[in-house]
Amino acid sequence: MAHTPYNGSSQRPAGLSEAARLELIETAKRYPIKRSAVLHGLRLVQREAGFVTEAGMRDVASLLEMTPHEVYDVATFYTLFHLRPKGEYLIQVCRTLPCALGGAESLLSHLEQRLGIREGQTTPDGKFTLVTVECLAACGKAPVMQVNDDYHEAVTTEQVDRLIEQWHRTPPVQDAGNASTRGKGRG
Ligand code: FES
């Protein structure tokens, strides 16, 4: 199921659908303790709503016998999960030292200038969200960015310009909710 793209709507998103609730209950049965299925629960929320909603986190907490705060802690640890609506193209620029030394700052500035947004923002048409993340595990090819499920290594500004033109012409083919599961390097 494709995620719902950002449309600027202020409508309060719903929690898990009945089908997703049943799926999570069945998944939790495979684990010795229910809370082990929390990542799957959060993926279901994001798959249905396009991002991790408060109502969805409460549903996951209730079904897995966790507190909403515990679920929130997991959701905020992984770059996989987004607590706000995101664009069709989620652009994640690595900011860790090897990429920083390899030009990540100028790459980010170029993206900000081309897209007309700052880091952490989404374009008004809902097409692009630009964020920075910690190491994407391709340090030898700095600077690196991940766009939805695709990696781009040793990225140049010319390459970015070509990609942006291409992205403007075509919608993404994959669900951005399946992006990296790496931690945000908190702590
Ligand atoms: S430091 Fe950027 S991919 Fe590792």
Brief summary of the model shown:
With 187 residues, the chain is an alpha+beta fold. The protein is built from seven helices and four strands; from the N terminus they run H-H-H-H-E-H-H-E-E-E-H. The protein has two domains: 18-77, NADH-quinone oxidoreductase subunit E (Arc Repressor Mutant, subunit A, Orthogonal Bundle), CATH 1.10.10.1590; 89-178, Glutaredoxin (3-Layer(aba) Sandwich), CATH 3.40.30.10.
Key features of this structure:
2 domains; 187 residues; Arc Repressor Mutant, subunit A; 4 strands; single chain; 4-stranded mixed β-sheet; binds FE2/S2 (inorganic) cluster; elongated; Glutaredoxin; alpha+beta
Rg estimate, integer Å? 17 Å
Name the shape in a single word: elongated
Number of helices: 7
Question: For this structure, what is the CATH class of the largest domain?
Answer: Alpha Beta
CATH superfamily of the largest domain: Glutaredoxin
Class by helix and strand content?
alpha+beta
The CA-CA distance between the termini, in Å, is 34 Å
Number of domains: 2
What characterizes the major β-sheet? 4 strands, mixed
